[in-house]
Amino acid sequence: MSSILTNTSSMVALQTLKGINSSLSKTQAEISTGKSVGSAKDNAAVWAISKVMEADVKGFKGISDSLNLGESSVAVARQATETVTDLLTEIKGKVVAAQEQNVDRGKIQTDIDALTEQIKSVVNAAQFNGLNLLKGTEDMNILSSLDRAGDGSVTAANITVGRKDLTTSAGVYGGGTSLAPNATVAGGASAVASTGNSAVVTFAGTAADYSAANATLTVAGVDLNYTGQAGHTESNAASFFSAAINALGLEGITASASSGALTVTSTRAFDSAKVTVGALAGNAAGSQITSLNGSAVTQASGDIANRAEQIDFSTSAAVKEGDGYKVTIGSGSYNYVAGKGETMEDVARGLKTAIDSAGLTGITTKVVQDASTGQWSLKVDNSGASKSFSSTGNEGGTASGGLFGLDAIDVTTNAGADAALDNIETMINSSIAAAASFGSAQGRIEIQSEFVGKLSDALKTGIGTLVDADMEEASARLQALQVQQQLGVQSLSIANQAPQNILSLFR
Predict the structure, then answer these.
(1) Range of the domain at 12
(2) Residue 374 within a domain
(3) Highest mean pLDDT among 62-66, 298-302, 334-338
(4) Quick one: CA dihedral 404, 410, 411, 414, positive or negative?
(5) What pLDDT does 283 receive?
(6) Do 100 and 140 sit in the same domain of this protein?
(7) How many CA atoms lie within 13 A of 274 on its CB side?
């Protein structure tokens, strides 16, 4: 049936042409924008994912800038610490040269002072955009990543770079909670004096017959042999060993005899002296060495303790930033305040530096560790008049600089030159540790920066896969749609001519 009121063919052709034009417009939009999903109406799910990923890409661009800034700051600190290490090594060479007696220590001290000032200059200048990692103890956090969880939550990740204070500041001793139990004077000594320690070897009997006796006494590694003679008594044996020991000329070792007792005295500051005794042999009735330091013996040995007094540090207590420890010698107190990440070894060495820097006459120090327990101790010796001696500690201070004591190095005296040798080694180790730490941090930042760059590229590629148009496909589709559009127009034209054909029926 034909109708002049309803042209079904025209409606079908028109709807087909509209669909073709819509597809053609979409294809042209893809070609002009390069995106198959340009807005949420194109594909809401894919568009939402792409926008989240685009936001992450923008975030990683900011992270890359943060890493570049952090890497530059750490690189400056690393270079500075390496320079400080080289300068400290030069100072060590000067200190070693000052150990000789026939050198001009005054000129050497001038060189050391100049190198010290140069180190201070390097530390003060080691900043990037105002940030100096060689001062203070507060860590620096560098934004390194944005970690997105499955539920969509985002967490910022950081690379933490610890500051390494290489200043020469003495710190500020605090008045917080007492730390006295962590640093105790061995044996409860209350004074440090030049008095030596002794071992007493007692011989038996009163006027006992020593005519056929013989014995061996070993002092500080030297064997001494006694052979009795007619009429000898225990006093002769004691006197023989006393004279023999004194004749050896052992540093810090002397002996005396009285009423059949031999007293061996050591004034060695930091080294013990071993005494070994053996039983008398022979036909002398009742003749024997009866005791060493009051203990009955047939054969025994013992150590004469070193003269120095000793502060023992806890093997279990942790050291926190701001923990201060103090040693009092006579009327003066000398303290060290620990920084972040330090140990009891650092405290012991810091106190040694503090005492050495004071230049006390007759006072020498040494840091030792017990091989069996791992306990660190500070030994303090006094070759002069007796001085009171004590130790304590408190929380809540401001940390001393990592090169504390550097500007107090004085090699113009024998004692100062000796003390400087140990202390400069501690400072070199601190500087080397700081340089190594910054080097490791810089390497990690470089790796993370490279990873972030690759991650950003991968995210961009993923976004492109989701929303970018396939230009080859779009081009082919455009040509096909253009042909369909032409055919659609012709079809509509033909359909619109159908009512005109009805007129021929009325002619």
Answers:
(1) 8-34+469-506
(2) yes
(3) 334-338
(4) negative
(5) 47
(6) yes
(7) 7
